[in-house]
Amino acid sequence: MDFSFSDEQGMLMDAARRLVTDQYGRDGARQRAATADGYSRATWSEFARLGLLALNVPEEHGGLDAGPIGTLAVCFVLGEALVVEPFLSSAVLATLAIARLGSPEQRLQWLPRLAAGEAIAVLAHEEGDGGPVATAVRTVAVADGGEWVLDGCKSVVYHAPAADLLLVTARIDAPTGAQTALFAVPPDAAGVALQPYVTVDGQRAADISLHQLRLPSSARMGAEVGADLQAVLDQGLAALCAETLGALERLMRMTLDYTRERVQFGVPIARFQALQHRMAEMATHLEFARSMTYLAASQCVAGEPAGRAAALSAAKVIVGQAARFVGQQAVQLHGGMGVADEYGVSHYFKRLLAAECRFGATAWHLTRYAGTL
């Protein structure tokens, strides 16, 4: 398959690369992660100015509607720089959810603000160790007069502490069976409690508890949202694979450069055959991850649901295995420098470690893929 980016997609990559080069520098990710917000509001505004936050906004709302391939191109670049701004959480997942599931009023209210960087929204869906499945919801929504009452918990919701809007999934027990519903929830509403923390890779996340949360009927987005929500989750998973691929490629380059510069016994350690074998294996894992990431994105464009689910799980397995192997080998090849907080390798290792666990861990996706055979 000839997977080549179009001119427009290439321009998106160039714009994103110029932005992160200008804004991030050498220690940009670490400096931003150490701030009170955990990201830079000024950089977020630059994302908006370049149109990157409008990547998944439909054209009728002034967006680019770049689709999964355009999203892959940008996320790859952001992964190279270890960007900590809530791009995947807000500009991909939440924006897609509102665009696909929101009412005309909800789309008009939120999409322009999200594209302009004036608001941040996050999708609160996962509830434990499961994967990105639209129907895997234990949070319950019960109709009470003209309101909905929600009870439940959401786990490891990235960038929830910075959100102006939470998109919460819940199960509705209807006469025809359980249905998945999506609700627009203000983070400061009575009945919402956030427990924020810093993730292993320095990003901000929170566990969310919902206790007798009362919402107006207008807070519900769409009716039965299972199929559309699954498409959103699938595109988010493909974007995560692209972001991880960017981090993998940057870490691979850093490791190759180091082994060419590090001299032992009078020669660069890149000349040692045993280390050459290791780096060849790293490069093999990287190329497998690249091909599967491209497959995942292409399946989000044209794949049917069952085939898309299998391809995405296969991609997450291959990318997860590459993240673990390349990360571990990079640390070992750098020696003591590989674990030093002052050196970039340790930060890439932590990002890859976190990426392997997000959207379902490798073992979960391996089990799901086996079930499709």
List the helices and strands and how they pair.
Blueprint lengths: L6 H17 L4 H6 L7 H9 L17 H14 L6 H15 L2 H12 L5 E4 L15 E5 L2 E12 L6 E10 L2 E9 L6 E7 L5 E13 L3 E2 L4 H36 L1 E2 L2 E2 L4 H30 L2 H30 L9 H14 L4 H10 L2
Parallel strand pairs: 1-4
Antiparallel strand pairs: 2-3, 3-7, 4-5, 5-8, 6-7, 9-10
Helix pairs in contact: 1-4, 4-7, 4-8, 5-6, 5-7, 7-8, 7-9, 7-10, 8-9, 9-10, 9-11
Structure in words:
The protein has 373 residues and is an alpha+beta fold. It folds into three domains: 7-120, Orthogonal Bundle (Butyryl-Coa Dehydrogenase, subunit A, domain 1), CATH 1.10.540.10; 123-225, Butyryl-CoA Dehydrogenase, subunit A, domain 2, CATH 2.40.110.10; 227-371, Butyryl-CoA Dehydrogenase, subunit A, domain 3. It is built from eleven helices and ten strands. It has helices at residues 7-23, 28-33, 41-49, 67-80, 87-101, 104-115, 226-261, 273-302, 305-334, 344-357, 362-371, and strands at residues 121-124, 140-144, 147-158, 165-174, 177-185, 192-198, 204-216, 220-221, 263-264, 267-268. A hairpin with a 2-residue loop joins β9 (263-264) and β10. α1 (7-23) runs parallel beside α4, α5 (87-101) runs antiparallel to α7 (226-261) and α7 (226-261) runs parallel beside α9. The mean pLDDT is 95.
CATH superfamily of the largest domain: Butyryl-CoA Dehydrogenase, subunit A, domain 3
Provide mean pLDDT, rounded: 95
Provide the succession of SSEs.
HHHHHHEEEEEEEEHEEHHHH
> How much of the polypeptide forms β-strand, as a percent range?
15-25%
Number of strands: 10
Task: Enter the CATH topology name of the largest domain.
Answer: Butyryl-CoA Dehydrogenase, subunit A, domain 3
CATH class of the largest domain: Mainly Alpha
What would you say the CATH architecture of the largest domain is? Up-down Bundle
Alpha plus pi helix count: 11
The biggest beta sheet reads: 4 strands, mixed
Q: What portion of residues is helical?
A: 40-55%
Distance between the termini: 23 Å
How many domains in all? 3
For the largest sheet, list the strands in their spatial order. 1-4-5-8
Report the structural category. alpha+beta
Shape: globular
Poorly predicted sequence stretches spanning 5 or more consecutive residues: none
